[in-house]
Specification:
This protein is an alpha/beta fold. The protein folds into 3 domains: about 220 residues, Rossmann fold; about 55 residues, no CATH class; about 90 residues, no CATH class. About 40% of the residues lie in helices and about 10% in strands. The protein is built from 15 helices and 7 strands. The chain is globular, with a radius of gyration of 23 Å.
Amino acid sequence: MDKFITSICQKYIERLLNRQKQWPPVRGDRLINLQLVEAEKEEGFRAGLPQHGAPDDKVKRTPILHGDLFKVEESKKPVKKLIVEGNAGIGKTTLCTMLAEGWAEGKILTQFNCVLLLPLRENRVSSATSLAELFKLLHANERIRQSVVEELEEREGKSVLIIADGWDELSEDNQLETSFLYDLLFGDVLPFASVLLTSRPSASAPLHDLPSVNRLVEVVGFNEENIKQYIESEFEQFPEKASSLIKQLENNPVIQSVCSVPLNCAIVCNLWHTLDQELPRTLTELYTQIILNIILRNVKKKFPDCPISCNSFDKIPNDLQNTFWLMCEFAYECLLLDQLVSQKMICPFAYPNLVTSCCALVCCSLHDHFYL
């Protein structure tokens, strides 16, 4: 077990050290506002949010620090199963990463001997049907894996925290009570393990009534002051550029409202790094510029010596044009079907030109989304 814990701590810390290479390149604690949702219940949390019908006077929301998620008053029962809800881009995944890194550094969650970070959106995680199969993803040495699984099962998960990110991204089959993941998080696989599960509210609402779920936390967006603080931290070396962006947002409530989602705020800041003109005035102009900026950034990353500028779709380099418009066609057809597309849903036979243009896919920032 000691060797396994040392190994996963090293992985979490390596992520922390590589944060400057990640995006958005800002400390996660500047992205996240958390609120503890408390209901008038004798045991646990089973009241549901106001949007699910609970009266406002029955629900209280108070700010909570990410390091205090499992802390309770001495007179209350310990928190074992915790749900963190929030809309897309609000900071749920960033929170999970921060918690794992903070535990590896010995700064937070020190009451747990082992913290397992499970990104549920990854097919290798969601397709696991046993602890032994799941741990193949967590450690390369079979002997160590078997020893750890046996010890966890013997101790029934005591002093273990499972951080499961993305319940809403699981298939319906994996959300059933008969699935291994459901049994791991809420059942008898490791009954004494603590669990932190993130999800969009629409998917996790049915879990509120589970007897084992005894805390609900919401990740909430930025207010105007948060947006200002984020921009100032992002442009710490360029205060005039920060002031200019803040002023333009104050004069454009439409774009400013978009920045209430932390990820959107990060995207706008990233865009502002490259603009020498005014910020786009409409959402359509903003999204268009963001797409062009992503393509330009990846082209320069792939071909650093190539003198390319790109300020309209018509000026996308010729070598990328066909791939880009095939992607647009593919996205439009999926929109008509009213469904999100996962990695396994791409059909190379329907779009053979996509498959033969790996470099173009990379330049269009789709290298993490397609199996080729």
